[in-house]
Specification:
Chain lengths: 380, 192, 401
């Protein structure tokens, strides 16, 4: 039976079947929702994914390890540094290479800048879906400054291809450091406070987001949610603290956890505020990192043709959307045998399906936006 | 709802809307961040940064014909043909600018720096076949690197590809790579 | 209008039997004037709104078509005019075609009562305010027709939501206007303006505290009537479709948009006439003003400026606030605005009676309210200054960039 036949079988007489089709104005990408509702209150919203499948995991089996890194950029283009980092970390573990400290610091700086950029877009889109168009454009304006910084650093503004197996590709100099520190002086606390006054404390946004899609901590763990979605439900789990990697143990930062700021723990407003607080924490990490970059090489000694010994590794990174993991199986040849990517948005789809029962259609938009899903991450 | 909830709703709404309106009004008084392109961009200031990964170009004076860039490209955008025989000539060096993903792996693999990114990014054409950049017009001898010497300074970065970009409105004809000149195997004995 | 016709007859020296013809011609001219004014205003507001929205979002709005993009609205209008007039096959064809005209007429007919200057008014009815509330019910009928006849689930939902919103919010509009009618004693708009004074503390908004709050209640309720953010759920873009005007294209679609922008002026115009003193000039009495042409023209300009300031505030609100959900909209109308406006009527009655007994109290309360409002404006300027101080981007006041 096709999907439509199955849905028509369970549809009752007073329900209508609406199609939030693959193209819709909420900009989260190409996902389709089939909504069964009786006018205003929804019975269920079934997500249909797969419209953006590009076969990245299959392409990995035909590309050498060093050449696969630009593909990993496109898994989640808003947080591309994290995708690079996770893959490169996995291959380094297979090869047993140690990355020089300067390269690790550069990786952390680039990753945290990317986290700020990704959160700016996600918060802006959530505000835009609710109707406030201005915070999105303010966020884009700040993100342009980050794009300028990454353009100076690695040459590209969206798909960075910055990390290499054994280090990073370009070095940092004083001009870039000064630009980063100017940006941080402007961003924290000036921009964050203004953003809060504009939209985070706005009563209409609070009333739209509070008690929508409340996910308790057990439910969140059962759904398999990760990242800010999980932390907003009260679970204090951050890969940078619980399973540390790279040089994160050397930095002092907090992990914001949702505590029901205006409503219940784990609702959409918590997810909004947790992301704002995470941006502040990232800015603090970058400040600490800039002031103490060690000297040294930016690339370790790596063989020309990378052929890791046979084995498998799972390496995960705390990306802007949660845990981004790569399971790489190598069989000693130049191309990986299998490269499976685990993303946070995929688990969020089921959470949306379950949590959308019983809320308004307008709330569905808020729920989707607050889970911060990007379509390319769901179907790679 | 209780009276205090009612009163708090009204008070929070009024205060937060007031603050929000003050923020937007203050932004109305400031200078817009956008710059009208290409009218108001100052011509002396470069639009892109120095490390920007724009269109690729090849300076064939420095190219050694090692095919490292062709091997490293994950997509297979670079097409090099080197004639076999007594003397090697590079007869074809095509880069498909439409397929390229501007990742920069080829630039890192090149030993002499012949292939490099430029700052050009404006290259719109009417025919997709024109998106392929042909860099070889006549067969070129590859550069033989002298030990412990710097490669010669090539042309200015960007000048080669800018010529191609500026000529893009000319008609498209099928590109035929040039033929290798005949070389007799007896060496270069001068004949009368 | 009748005085104007009398003056024209005296000026040209015609006999009085032509007075009917003169009146009919005057009505026709006034109708054309209102149509032109409304349409021009709607078009120019669309350009103005996009420029203001751009500056608030740290970008430039349209500035290509003509000097600073001024002909953008003309370009958009021409483009829509030349579009194909698509009428879907399964629609109720007659209702589909009539709906935009009903909406447009409903908004345009309110221009009959809005006074532009002491003697330029379509018809100074002695039930002016009731006429306004009644004629805007045509808009409701038009939207319902549009939503139903488009033969689509989404438009039906949007149309019904919009209808429910508009008929609910008519009640706070009417009730908050009554707060001002009580001290004025008349329903006709011209006479209400005449009974106010010219100087700011003589306006009805500072007449008693109830009128002060009633201004904001009227403003919010009129925004909801006009389907503007924060109440534009029926026509929201990101709630998937554009509501009741999804299936419309070309000029029919433009009629809906025209009606929405014209409605901005109507909101501003009525609020100015009732609360902010209309075309009164400070220090000039009505007789002096209506006698001289230049003072009438000045009154027209003053009225325009006050209404445009309010239009600015509406545009500003649109680009700052998110939108309310439909049930929150209804809660706000029936649980907040309606009880508050009834309470305000009672308070206004009490204050009016007190002012008859103690005239000095009237002056004291007026001055106090005027000073309070100046304080609020001052606090607002302080918050704007605080914003500018805390962020490195500096002030840049060139409006045209």
């Amino acid at each position: 039976m096709t999907l439509e036949e199955r849905l028509n079988a369970v549809k009752r007489d007073n329900e209508i079947l609406l199609n939030m089709g693959p193209q819709h104005p909420s900009t989260h990408g190409v996902i389709r929702f089939i909504v069964r509702s009786d006018g205003e209150i929804m019975v269920e919203a079934l997500p249909v994914v797969g419209y953006l499948h590009r076969g990245i995991e299959k392409l990995a089996e035909m590309t050498p390890y060093a050449g696969f890194i630009p593909y990993t950029d496109r898994v989640d283009y808003l947080a591309a540094m994290f995708c690079n980092h996770a893959f490169v970390m996995g291959v380094e573990r297979l090869l047993g290479i140690e990355v020089p400290r300067r390269a690790e610091y550069l990786r952390v700086i680039a990753s945290e800048l990317n986290r700020i950029a990704s959160h700016l877009i996600s918060l802006g889109s959530m505000a835009m879906d609710i109707g406030a168009f201005t915070p999105f454009l303010h966020g884009i304006r700040e993100r342009e400054l980050i794009n300028d910084i990454t353009e100076m650093l690695c040459g590209a503004r969206l798909t960075y291809n910055y990390m290499r197996i054994g280090g990073v590709s370009n070095d940092i100099n004083d001009k870039i450091l000064k630009k980063i520190s100017d940006f941080l002086d402007r961003f924290l606390p000036g921009f964050i406070e203004e953003f809060n006054r504009l939209i985070t404390y706005n009563e209409i946004l609070v009333k739209r987001c509070v008690n929508i899609g409340t996910i308790s901590s057990e439910e969140a763990i059962n759904f398999g949610l990760v990242g800010p979605n999980l932390r907003a439900s009260g679970v204090k789990w951050d890969l940078r603290k619980n399973m540390p990697y790279s040089v994160y143990p050397e930095f002092k930062f907090e992990v914001p956890v949702g505590e029901g700021f205006r409503g219940s723990v784990g609702d959409s407003y918590d997810r909004f505020v947790v992301r704002v607080k995470e941006m502040e924490e990232s800015a603090k990490i970058i400040r600490q990192a800039i002031s103490s970059i060690p000297d040294g090489e930016i690339m370790a000694k790596v063989p020309k043709r990378i052929k890791p010994p046979a084995g498998e590794v799972y390496s995960a990174v705390e990306s802007a959307r949660g845990e981004l993991g790569y399971h790489i199986i190598s069989d000693g040849l130049e191309n990986p045998y299998r490269c499976k990517i685990r993303t946070g948005s995929f688990s969020a789809m089921k959470a949306i399906h379950i949590k959308s029962q019983g809320c308004f259609i307008a709330d569905l938009v808020v729920l989707i936006a607050s889970m911060d899903i990007v379509a390319p991450e769901i179907d790679r | 709802m209780s009276f205090s909830e009612y009163y708090n709703n009204i008070k929070n709404s009024v205060v937060s809307i007031f603050e929000g309106m003050a923020v937007t009004f203050s932004w109305m008084l400031r200078r817009p961040h956008t710059v009208q392109y290409p009218d108001r961009v100052e011509p002396s200031r470069p639009i892109v940064q120095q490390r920007f990964r724009g269109l690729l170009e090849v300076d064939l004076n420095i190219c050694t014909g090692c095919l490292a860039c062709q091997r490293t490209c994950p997509i297979g955008v670079i097409m090099i043909e080197v004639s076999k025989g007594a003397e090697r000539y590079i007869t074809r060096f095509d880069i498909e600018a439409g397929k390229c993903m501007y990742c920069g792996l080829c630039v890192e693999a090149c030993p002499t720096g012949a292939i490099r990114h430029t700052g050009e990014f404006a290259f719109s054409v009417g025919d997709i076949r024109k998106l392929v950049l042909h860099f070889v017009n006549e067969p070129v001898k590859p550069y033989k690197p002298v030990k412990d010497a710097e490669p010669p300074a090539g042309k200015e970065v960007g000048s080669i590809v800018r010529e191609i970009v500026n000529r893009r409105r000319e008609g498209y004809t099928q590109y035929i790579p040039p033929a290798v000149p005949e070389v007799s195997s007896k060496g270069d004995k001068e004949s009368t | 209008m009748l005085e104007l016709s009398d003056r024209i007859i005296e000026y040209f020296g015609l006999s009085h039997q032509y007075s009917l013809i003169v009146i009919v011609v005057l009505f026709f001219v006034y109708g054309l004037f209102a149509l032109t004014f409304g349409s021009l205003f709607a078009g120019i507001t669309s350009w103005y709104e996009r420029r203001i929205a751009g500056r608030m979002q740290s970008r430039i709005g349209p500035n290509r078509v003509g000097y600073q993009g001024f002909w953008q609205w003309l370009a958009d209008g021409l483009k829509c005019w030349f579009k194909e007039d698509i009428i879907p096959r399964d629609t109720d064809s007659l209702l589909f075609r009539i709906a935009p005209y009903l909406v447009f007429t409903g908004v345009l007919c309110t221009f009959v009562v809005i006074p532009f200057s002491p003697s330029v008014v379509g018809s100074d009815m002695n039930v002016g305010i009731v006429y306004i509330i009644a004629i805007t019910a045509l808009v409701v009928a038009g939207i319902l027709m549009a939503g139903w006849s488009s033969n689509s689930k989404w438009t039906l939902l949007g149309g019904i939501r919009s209808t429910a919103q508009m008929i609910s919010y008519e009640i706070p509009v009417a009730l908050s206007l009554i707060v001002v009618i009580i001290p004025a004693g008349t329903l006709s708009l011209q006479k209400i303006i005449i009974s106010q004074g010219g100087a700011p503390y003589n306006w009805y908004i500072f007449h008693n505290p109830a009128a002060f709050v009633a201004f904001f209640v009227y403003f919010i309720a009129a925004l909801a009537e006009g389907n503007r953010t924060p109440f534009d759920l029926p026509e929201a873009e990101s709630e998937l479709v554009a509501g009741y005007n999804t299936e419309y294209s070309g000029m029919r679609f433009l009629f809906f948009l025209f009606a929405e922008w014209m409605n901005l002026y109507v909101i501003g115009g009525i609020a100015t006439a009732l609360f902010l003193g209309g075309w009164r000039i400070p220090g000039v009495s009505y007789e002096v003003q209506s006698a001289s042409i230049w003072l009438e023209f000045l009154g027209f300009i003053i009225y325009l400026i006050k209404a445009l300031i309010l239009v600015n505030v509406i545009i500003w609100l649109r680009w700052t606030l998110p939108r309310l959900r439909i049930d929150q909209l209804m809660i706000m109308c029936y649980k907040y605005l309606l009880p508050i406006s009834i309470l305000l009527i009672v308070i206004s009655i009490i204050f009016t009676i007190l002012y008859e007994l103690f005239p000095l109290l009237g002056v004291v309360v007026r001055v106090l309210l005027f000073l309070t409002s100046l304080l609020i404006l001052g606090y607002f300027s302080y918050r704007v200054y605080y914003n500018i101080k805390n962020f490195p981007d500096k002030v840049y006041l060139k409006w045209m960039i």
